[in-house]
Amino acid sequence: MTTTETPSYPMARQCPFSPPDEMREIRESEPVTRARIWDGSTPWLVTRYSDVRAVLADQRFSSDPFRAGYPHAAPSRKIRQTRMRPSFIMMDDPEHARLRRMLIGEFTVKRTEKLLPLVEQAIADLLDAMEAGENPTDLVQAFALPLPSLVICHLLGVPYSDHAFFQEQSHALLDLTAGEEAVIAASDALMGYLDRLVDDRRRSPQDDLISRLAARIDTGELEVDDVSSMAFLLLVAGHETTANMIGLGTLTLLRHPDQAALVREGDDATVRSAVEELLRMLTITHIGRRRVATEDVEVGGTVIREGEGVIVAAEAANRDPEKYPEPDELDVTRGTNQHVAFGFGIHQCLGQPLARLELRIAYPALLRRFPDLRVTVPDEQIRFREQMAVYGVHELPVAF
Ligand code: HEM
């Protein structure tokens, strides 16, 4: 293939609510193809639902960014992934499994449901504050960001009063256009902060996740660095993702008043179905899961050679018409849809019960409290997060 025939990845979106049109064409015509990325290399791009699940479930594909051939998403990601202490999202089994296992009990559906009163209270408080505050307001700052941030801080034992600090670092770390210095500064600042917190909880344990992990240092199961890296991963993954699902999800519902009405007035099953449908449609982790083959593997009739990189495009898989009838239609009654927005296989999102809990309470509570909720600017004036590792909206001006 010549350079001109090889598509570039990522591609520009035509509509902010859908993956690029070119992705659809590629999925139809060449579902396993080469794509050119920022550094000139041409890893494989996998776009069909069945192939995406097959790659993510196959441990012959590694998540280790230190391996030659790993397709980094941007220079900033490469710096972050190769200069920082790795967390288990970047590791393969058995080390990945060893570390993940220590957290599984913290994130079961049963354990997470115990957070329901806390989540409901946080939502009620934020909506009260919004009602008493300025109108119009920015929904991201007033509601979408503080909710997951409060919840993850409570769970980890990170003081929420420091939220401005870690939200700023986390933002810098997810910015695909960030320069080397900014990435290193943000990463060092956040890691230093967490190192101090881990040290503190080791000496004076409290009833929180960091204290429980820190207790494993003295048993020799974990190093201090391991605990800080795990806390880092949870802190960043725990608030930016859910926050953007709340922001972009609300915007999407407001553009489909019939669907918003189903969420506002629907029963628990309808709301749960709506959450899954929004996760599928929006696939906010929009820069592809990144993998590298550790041996030759056939995917959808194409042999991917050992050492070759793979971009696993969940955003394309989640719109595959072979899996989903009318894939581009928002249908909040679609039911369990087996989307891959939380990934699949051994790295499948650990925090998904928590994200689901927050979303299924947040959307209806917001829509019920403010039945006249509306966006005050046209789509063209909304800043979508195309240059961020997690998609969504930077701000969402709303009136209510
Ligand atoms: C709507 C919200 C969320 C979305 C869309 C999302 C998405 C994802 C995806 C796609 C992966 C797979 C990464 C891969 O295959 O390389 C992942 C992994 C992960 N997520 Fe989430 N996530 C969300 C919320 C959360 C929350 C709330 C937490 C923590 C409390 C969390 C913690 C993690 C962790 C620790 C991993 C790594 C799992 C592993 O490598 O074994 N996520 N997430």
UniProtKB/TrEMBL annotation:
Residues 1-22 are annotated as: Disordered. Belongs to the cytochrome P450 family. SUPFAM superfamilies: Cytochrome P450. One of its GO terms (molecular function) is heme binding. InterPro entries: Cyt_P450 (IPR001128), Cyt_P450_B (IPR002397), Cyt_P450_CS (IPR017972), Cyt_P450_sf (IPR036396). This is Cytochrome P450. It comes from the Bacteria. Keywords: Heme, Iron, Metal-binding, Monooxygenase, Oxidoreductase. It comes from Pseudonocardia endophytica.
